[in-house]
Design brief:
By secondary structure, the chain is mainly alpha-helical. It has helices at residues 3-25, 44-67, 88-103, 120-132, and strands spanning 76-78, 84-86, 105-107, 114-116. It has one domain: CRISPR-associated endonuclease Cas1, C-terminal domain (Four Helix Bundle (Hemerythrin (Met), subunit A), Up-down Bundle), CATH 1.20.120. It contains four helices and four strands. The strands form two sheets. Strands 1-2 form a two-stranded antiparallel sheet. The protein has a two-stranded antiparallel ribbon with strand order 3-4. Strand 1 and strand 2 form a beta hairpin. The mean pLDDT is 94.
Length: 145
């Protein structure tokens, strides 16, 4: 019902799709998670993987876009009933910024090498798959520093 929540919801949708792709890419079912109950049509594992990355890839980006005035009130439209959505120009700006953010490299704590943020969902899904298959003892969540 407000612009900031509309922006965050759009970024979360982009991020959960990346996390679902990461899970599927390593042979995991994105519908079966650990932190959420099974519900038809909800990618529970994708949402679980997203929790580690929400702050760094969505929340921080939303604040940056607003603070730098790359997203303004002009990028939103109010729908009947009070719902707020990003307009076409707003979605384009957010997608470009999201793709740019995914190219930034960070030090992965387990791999101890620089990794693009966009690959972290795939790396974390691979680590989870290794734990589930018994190749690793414990899952190490991604911590951004």
């Amino acid at each position: 019902m407000d612009p900031m929540n509309a922006l965050l919801s759009f970024l979360y949708a982009l991020l959960v799709n990346d996390c679902v792709a990461g899970a599927e890419g390593v042979g995991l079912d994105p519908q079966v998670g650990f932190l959420r109950a099974l519900r038809s049509g909800r990618p529970a594992l994708g949402l679980d993987l997203m929790e580690e990355l929400r702050a760094v890839l969505a929340d921080r980006l939303a604040l940056t876009l607003v603070n730098r005035r790359q997203i303004t009130e002009a990028h939103f439209v109010e729908r009947p009933g009070g719902a707020v959505h990003l307009n076409d120009e707003g979605r384009k700006s957010v997608i470009v910024a999201y793709q740019t953010r995914k190219q930034e490299e960070v030090m992965h704590p387990l791999l101890e090498q620089k990794t693009p943020l966009g690959l972290i969902p795939h790396v974390q899904a691979r680590l989870l798959a290794r734990v589930l298959r018994g190749d690793m003892d414990a899952y190490l969540p991604f911590l951004y520093r």
